[in-house]
């Protein structure tokens, strides 16, 4: 029985977000009141860090959030924090993240040094920040460093700081680089503290990034509300497909309540990814729904990386975990009601080191890596 036309059990939702350009769907949904036609209202709740997003999701202070894909899985698995059953309702965007190195390191790479040579030339362990221990930025950074022959846990001091503090830390000399979302790479570059040396779409082209996350009991108790929220976010993501709309939301995102960063530093990398750099694939929010389906194989990939880096050794069925977290049935109901096509369950992705992941032979994929913790 299809229940997508049923009234939401909850009509006012508090949504958490961190000050990043890819929070755009939440901003669009709230500012344009897109939830009205689905029976909900949205209150945006800016959070200072991903740890704050985690804690307020678990305490119920926020109902759902714009969240790192890997944050959801870290909480589900109890890695580096409290464990709770979590839900990924949909993917909010693909691509749109980057790695910035300090100017001396970026200059060395530009001059022909390999990433490994440039980092070793410091004569000490480089300090490179990411935003959450199990988050997407940590996994992109680790994968990129390993692909360049640098062990991300032994050769580098990897630290966690909120994305809003990245540029300041680079300016102060506390960091040698960082992996995070925009607009903080644009900010660091504008302040002449560093330069973007890689885009995460070079690591995994069209990788999943932020998701719409909630506790699993919220989705179970309020399924109509969850579907209404997915419908609302799909509308917001579709609106963002137009270039003029991205320019419009970039201006709105500059407000102190959202990002608090000048539009001139938000718009270029939101409208034309990488500020026009040909290496960067565009940040994608919708593409007729191809972006948004919460593929189980995408979530499963994060678990392979936790095992790769010694963060997880539990004897559990990783595929079953991913299938329980990613709410594919709920998403299908919402997408069906909106007339949005459902893409295939698997997609093959070729990474920067030539390895291919399609969610099939996870054990064989993991066994192919020769760098472990």
Short description:
This protein is an alpha/beta fold and 373 residues long. The protein has 17 helices and twelve strands.
Structure in words:
By secondary structure, the protein is of the alpha/beta class. The chain folds into two domains: 12-94 and 208-365, 3-Layer(aba) Sandwich (D-Maltodextrin-Binding Protein, domain 2); 97-203, D-Maltodextrin-Binding Protein, domain 2, CATH 3.40.190.10. The protein has 17 helices and twelve strands. The protein has helices spanning 24-31, 50-59, 69-77, 103-110, 115-120, 136-147, 166-171, 184-190, 200-203, 216-221, 223-239, 243-253, 263-271, 296-308, 318-325, 328-338, 362-367; strands at residues 12-18, 41-47, 64-68, 86-91, 97-102, 127-130, 157-160, 177-181, 194-199, 210-215, 349-350, 356-357. A five-stranded mixed β-sheet has the order 2-1-3-10-4, sandwiched between helices. Strand 6, helix 6 (136-147) and strand 7 (157-160) form a beta-alpha-beta unit. It is globular. This is ABC-type nitrate/sulfonate/bicarbonate transporter, periplasmic ligand binding protein.
- Record the strand order, biggest sheet: 2-1-3-10-4
Radius of gyration, in angstroms, nearest whole number: 20 Å
Low-confidence stretches: none
- Mean pLDDT, to the nearest integer, reads 95
Count of the separate structural domains: 2
Structural class: alpha/beta
The CATH top-level class label of the largest domain: Alpha Beta
N-C termini distance: 48 Å
Shape: globular
The DSSP helix count reads 17
InterPro entries: NrtA/CpmA_ABC-bd_dom
Subcellular location: Endomembrane system
Protein name: ABC-type nitrate/sulfonate/bicarbonate transporter, periplasmic ligand binding protein
Keywords: Cell inner membrane, Cell membrane, Membrane, Signal, Transport
């Amino acid at each position: 029985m299809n229940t997508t036309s049923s009234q939401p059990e909850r009509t006012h939702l508090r949504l958490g977000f961190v000050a990043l350009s890819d929070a755009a769907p939440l901003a669009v949904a709230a500012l344009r009141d897109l939830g009205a036609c689905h029976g909900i209202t949205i209150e945006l709740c800016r959070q200072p860090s991903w740890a704050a997003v985690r804690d307020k999701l678990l305490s119920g202070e926020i109902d759902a959030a714009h969240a790192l894909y890997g944050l959801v899985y870290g909480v589900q698995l109890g890695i580096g924090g409290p464990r709770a059953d979590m839900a990924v309702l949909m993917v909010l965007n693909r691509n749109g993240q980057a790695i910035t190195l300090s100017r001396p390191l970026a200059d060395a790479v530009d001059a022909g040094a390999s990433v490994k040579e440039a980092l070793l030339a410091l004569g000490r362990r480089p300090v490179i920040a990411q935003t959450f221990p199990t988050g997407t930025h940590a996994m992109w950074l680790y994968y990129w460093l390993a692909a360049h022959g640098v062990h991300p846990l032994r050769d580098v001091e990897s630290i966690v700081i909120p994305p809003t503090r990245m540029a300041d830390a680079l300016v102060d000399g506390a960091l040698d680089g960082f992996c995070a979302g925009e607009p903080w790479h644009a900010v660091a570059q504008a302040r002449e503290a560093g330069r973007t040396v890689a885009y995460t779409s070079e690591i995994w082209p069209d990788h999943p990034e932020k998701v719409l996350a909630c506790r699993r009991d919220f989705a179970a108790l309020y399924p109509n509300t969850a579907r209404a929220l997915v419908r609302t976010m799909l509308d917001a993501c579709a609106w963002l497909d137009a270039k003029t709309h991205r320019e419009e939301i970039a201006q709105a995102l500059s407000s102190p309540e959202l990002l608090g960063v000048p539009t001139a530093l938000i718009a270029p990398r939101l409208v034309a990814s990488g500020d026009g750099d040909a290496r960067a694939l565009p940040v994608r929010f919708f593409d007729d729904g191809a972006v948004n389906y919460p593929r189980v194989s995408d979530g499963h990939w994060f678990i392979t990386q936790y095992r790769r880096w010694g963060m997880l050794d539990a004897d559990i069925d990783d595929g079953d975990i991913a299938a329980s977290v990613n709410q594919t049935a709920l998403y299908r109901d919402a997408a069906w009601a909106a007339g949005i096509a459902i893409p295939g369950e698997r997609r093959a992705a070729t990474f920067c080191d030539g390895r291919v992941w399609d969610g099939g032979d996870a054990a064989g994929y993991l066994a192919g890596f020769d760098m472990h913790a």
